[in-house]
């Protein structure tokens, strides 16, 4: 058992962290959060590095890496903001539905453009009445001649409004709870589709949206894979998605703690540096322990996945733990920075907002506990 990165992993860690420091940086991230702007320049640079293809097989022009290398990447891209990580990762996961189940025409027209940064993807599962209970989707797709006609209401579809984005959408094609769900490809410029941004306190750069499907017509070849297999296709990439979100939370918690340490070493009260007060020192020490533990859980789950084993329980455990840790670290950071924590230029309020969403996005804390309990035979 080896708890250290090998040379290749260490080098990848350094390359990705250097990229985030030099090519992204906290000021750029802060500005894009404040202006609710997608980080186009960073996305394009990542495409130029070939990194958008980290989950795409080589036969389609990607450079698919193992889950450990991907976790290292996600830890780095979450460094300044979980939103930045979501901006990069959302298309990467969603593209895999096309890679694994898309038609030859979809692959040919979408994958090269995705890899060079010109084509994005958004995933639309959630509906007003179906969040955690994701299979309760009500949006209906009915075949009519050479078209599918869709009716329903989707919410929380992150990035669906961005230029050149194709939405991979889960809709009901029969009444069977799981086998009655199918996946469809809906370009966001499809006539009749009106996408509205939601005014969230997180994911301000990626943006999240809602839309109504009112007799929306798409050609029949926009079905992804087979009718009734949508649930199965979505479930295929859930562990990888959760692992990646979790890795990025560890990366962000690290920065939040480092910022807290730096601030408390500089700021004085009662003639002492804040870092000299034992209560603050101990909180930071506890956070150090927790981040280390969360990180080990991420790489332990990643290493199980890299060996081709099912790591669903380990991924969910890591997700619950890391989300709690990220929130606790940001919460303590908010307290340690006093009033200054309220100012965007100190970044802590962003870490705090985003860490809270970490307990919900990608499957809530409670749903992860249900998965873990199931693995425990409960
Ligand atoms: C910013 C943002 C971006 C998002 N992006 C996307 C996206 O791109 N695509 C997409 O499809 N969705 C997206 N979502 C939706 C997200 O996946 C859901 O919000 C999430 O799954 C929870 O669903 P819900 O909000 O309807 O909460 P609910 O399901 O209503 O849950 C409310 C509370 O009840 C708890 N609960 C529910 N069921 C159980 C149970 N069985 N046992 C115990 N507790 C339970 C939950 O854990 C939670 O605490 C996004 C959401 C947000 C806020």
Mean pLDDT: 97
Please describe the biggest sheet, giving its number of strands, its sense, and whether it closes into a barrel: 4 strands, mixed
CATH architecture call of the largest domain: Up-down Bundle
**Shape field:** globular
CATH class of the largest domain: Mainly Alpha
Instruction: Give the names of the bound compounds.
Output: flavin-adenine dinucleotide
Would you mind describing this structure in some detail?
There is one protein chain. The protein is globular and about 80 Å long. Helix 3 crosses helix 7 and helix 4 packs antiparallel against helix 5. With 378 residues, it is an alpha+beta fold. The chain has eleven helices and ten strands. It is 51% helix and 16% strand. The protein has three domains: 114 residues, Orthogonal Bundle (Butyryl-Coa Dehydrogenase, subunit A, domain 1); 108 residues, Beta Barrel (Butyryl-CoA Dehydrogenase, subunit A, domain 2), CATH 2.40.110.10; 139 residues, Butyryl-CoA Dehydrogenase, subunit A, domain 3, CATH 1.20.140. Strand 4 and strand 5 form a beta hairpin. The model has no long low-confidence stretch (mean pLDDT 97). The strands form three sheets. Strands 1-4-5-8 form a four-stranded mixed β-sheet, with helices on one face. A four-stranded antiparallel β-sheet has the order 2-3-7-6, with no helix packed on it. The two termini are 30 Å apart. The protein binds flavin-adenine dinucleotide. The site of flavin-adenine dinucleotide (FAD) has 20 residues, from strand 1, strand 3 and helix 11.
């Amino acid at each position: 058992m080896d708890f250290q990165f090998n040379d290749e992993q260490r080098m990848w860690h350094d390359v990705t962290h250097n990229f985030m420091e030099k090519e992204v940086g906290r000021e750029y991230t802060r500005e894009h959060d404040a202006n609710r702007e997608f980080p186009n320049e960073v996305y394009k640079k990542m495409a130029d590095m070939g990194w958008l293809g980290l989950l795409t097989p080589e036969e389609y022009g990607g450079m698919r890496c193992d889950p450990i290398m991907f976790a290292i990447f996600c830890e780095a891209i979450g460094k300044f903001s979980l939103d930045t990580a979501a901006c990069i990762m959302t298309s990467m996961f969603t593209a895999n539905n096309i890679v694994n189940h898309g038609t030859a025409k979809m692959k040919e027209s979408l994958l090269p453009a995705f890899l060079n940064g010109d084509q994005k993807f958004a995933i639309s599962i959630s509906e007003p009445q179906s969040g955690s209970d994701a299979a309760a989707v009500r949006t209906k797709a009915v075949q009519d001649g050479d078209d599918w006609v869709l009716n329903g209401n989707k919410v929380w579809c992150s990035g669906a409004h961005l230029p050149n984005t194709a939405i991979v959408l889960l809709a009901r094609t029969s009444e069977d709870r799981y086998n009655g769900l199918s996946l469809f490809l809906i370009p966001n410029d499809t006539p009749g589709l009106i996408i509205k941004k939601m005014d969230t306190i997180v994911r301000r750069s990626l943006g999240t949206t809602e839309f109504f499907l009112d007799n929306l017509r798409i050609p029949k070849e926009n079905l992804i894979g087979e009718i009734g297999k949508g649930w199965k296709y979505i479930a295929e990439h859930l562990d990888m998605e959760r692992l990646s979100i979790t890795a990025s939370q560890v990366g962000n918690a690290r920065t939040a703690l480092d910022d807290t340490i730096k601030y408390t070493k500089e700021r004085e009260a009662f003639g002492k540096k804040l870092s000299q007060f034992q209560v603050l020192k101990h909180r930071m020490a506890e956070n150090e322990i927790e981040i280390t533990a969360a990180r080990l859980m991420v790489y332990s789950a990643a290493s199980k996945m890299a060996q081709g084993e099912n790591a669903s329980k380990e991924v969910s455990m890591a997700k619950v733990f890391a989300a709690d840790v990220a929130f606790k670290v940001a919460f303590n950071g908010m307290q340690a920075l006093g009033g200054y924590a309220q100012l965007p230029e100190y970044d802590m309020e962003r870490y705090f907002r985003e860490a809270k969403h970490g307990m919900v996005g990608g499957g809530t804390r409670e749903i992860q506990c249900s998965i873990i309990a199931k693995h425990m035979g409960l």
